[in-house]
Amino acid sequence: MAARMLAARPFKLVSHLPSMHASTPLFARQISMDAKGFASRLVDAGLLRSQALIGGKWSDAYDGNTIKVHNPATGDVITTVPCMGQNETNDAISAASEAFSSWSKVTNVERSKCLRKWYDLLISHKEELGQLITLEQGKPLQEAMGEVTYGAGFIEFFAEEAKRVYGDIIPSPLADRRMLVLKQPVGVVGAITPWNFPLAMITRKVGPALACGCTVVIKPSELTPLTALAAAELALQAGIPPGVMNVVMGNASAIGDALLASPQVRKITFTGSTAVGKKLMAGAAGTVKKVSLELGGNAPCIVFDDADLDVAVKGTLGAKFRNTGQTCVCANRIMVQEGIYEKFVDAFTKAVQKLQVGHGFSEGVAQGPLINEAAVQKVESFVKDATSKGAKVVLGAKRHSLGMTFYEPTVLSDVKSDMIIARDEIFGPVASVLRFKTEDEALRMANDTNAGLAAYIFTNNVQRSWRVAEALEYGLVGVNEGLISTEVAPFGGVKQSGLGREGSKYGMDEYLEVKYVCLGNMSSK
Ligand code: SIN
């Protein structure tokens, strides 16, 4: 393993971090850490990788093509990574397929130990991984380190679950037969992951896949490949054998098509947009692969008159502004009952005003940049549509003075259900507040969407909390809590928000086939 690490091409900084900061005055002014120390710590730990990983070997694109990775806070190019396509993906699939024959036979205890070691390494490099996430994704450093804890948690959890892949013995209705059920790994998994959680969306898929004995080809987002490569490096250091975990990136449609076309890939797992999820589902039909999809949401956050105002404000703030509003479970429609509406909007706006916007490495920052210009333009168009149809700007509603992809934390009141902002996923720091009169109306509004990922309710009425939680057509419901994601609970949506569950014991089922074995001629003498 050490030899492979040494042989690997070192990280190629297109604009080296310290000078990058020096050439970016605003960034240099705001940065509160030792940039030089930061870069060298990452290099020392072997965590700055700019090649893909195929069969345990770090690799460039076969035609030498590269793509640039940008820092969304400054627009600077951090480095380049290979721009791969069909050929490299096919080789990664072959490597995963070859590794499957041995990894699937490794004892569950051995698999568990490898995963546990990987977890330990992820945690011991929490700071460096957090810095890498902030660098390529933009989220504030504290939040980025929180993602490392969250993401590593999936590896720890599934290291334990590896030991619990139980089958069943079925009481036989026939005297001469014995019937049993085995759970076996599905095979090679294609894991396509998004940019908003560059680590956690990988570990949430790869943890259970590896625990079950599957091998994986990961395609991280081209916007945030560096965290994926660092995690892969740590997986190698943890003793996860070559070929068990492969990482390719570049031409998304070529890679996706190769994964879909290959009969060796037995499962596709994807987190991202509903539109892409539908295409993958259709594409997987050709070879009848298992599919799990974590797609877009349109989360209602319902604040009833009987809610504790402080709890509702704090919970809604977390549910809306986590990751600068860029999560699938972010509160998209804050629906407030008329008796508490004015008080809530007032208190919530005061809380939003306190959110400090800035570069993720700056002290005290709670809101980073959006991922790119297209994301800002989308937010702007949603706000324009809402205000043109009667929504009121209570706060923000414009780009932040920092420029680039920074947008002011925004509160819009008097939003109506037919506005785009209430129908589509905002994925930005804009809180849209709607008004309702009765519980029935709130439920009708909340369920009037094709999405069904997360919903939140704030109420002090126990009966109502049960009643409404049961009636909401969503995969996750937070009651008096806005931050509910955890490795120990199932994550996933209903309706067009997806298929399958990630995390928790249910997350294992997605990577297992059920085999029925019938033993005949078993009559006793
Ligand atoms: C996502 O936005 O896709 C994931 C959010 C979470 O894990 O809480």
From TrEMBL:
Its main location: mitochondrion. Pfam families: Aldedh (PF00171). GO terms for molecular function: succinate-semialdehyde dehydrogenase (NAD+) activity. Residues 60-517 form the Aldehyde dehydrogenase domain. GO terms for biological process: gamma-aminobutyric acid catabolic process. Signal peptide: none annotated. GO terms for cellular component: mitochondrial matrix. Its EC number is 1.2.1.24. It is an enzyme of class 1 (oxidoreductase). Pathway: Amino-acid degradation; 4-aminobutanoate degradation. PROSITE patterns: ALDEHYDE_DEHYDR_CYS, ALDEHYDE_DEHYDR_GLU. The keyword NAD applies. It catalyses: succinate semialdehyde + NAD(+) + H2O = succinate + NADH + 2 H(+). The active site is at residue 294. It is found in: Mitochondrion matrix. Keywords: Mitochondrion, NAD, Oxidoreductase. Belongs to the aldehyde dehydrogenase family. Homotetramer. This is Succinate-semialdehyde dehydrogenase. It comes from Rosa chinensis (China rose).
